[in-house]
Write a structure and sequence with these properties.
This protein is mainly alpha-helical and 118 residues long. 80% of the residues lie in helices and 0% in strands. The protein has one domain (2-112).
Length: 118
């Protein structure tokens, strides 16, 4: 479980870096829309960092676990809203939801943060 949690967390890091980099492809000017798009990538990066911290310290830091779970729920809801409003392709839905939904479930799972768990 811990390995899967690590893989999913780093997958969100990769997705967030890709998202932030795509800002320069999708926007010709630095405007408020470009800033919000880039900010979505920053949000994902910070949530990925929270998950990596939760994986290592969540067993002893209950507050960290609660914040991490809440952040994952927010990112999942944000992804659903952005996908719907942005008319995401089926592949985009699979990639984004394939990362954020398991990550949310893993952040809730005690086995994913136990140091002695397999």
């Amino acid at each position: 479980m811990r390995l899967l949690y690590t893989i999913e967390s780093w997958a969100l890091v990769a997705l967030s870096v890709l998202h932030m980099g795509a800002t320069f492809r999708f926007f010709n000017a630095f405007n408020s829309q470009a800033l919000w798009f880039f900010g979505g990538g920053m949000l994902m990066l910070l949530v990925a960092a929270l998950n990596l911290l939760n994986r290592n310290y969540g067993q002893s830091a209950r507050g960290l676990r609660l914040v991490c779970v809440a952040a994952n729920v927010v990112v999942t809801a944000f992804g659903i809203a952005a996908g719907y409003l942005g008319k995401a392709s089926p592949l985009e839905w699979v990639v984004v939801m394939g990362i954020v939904v398991p990550l949310t479930l893993l952040s809730i799972s005690p086995a994913a943060v136990q140091k002695n768990a397999a």
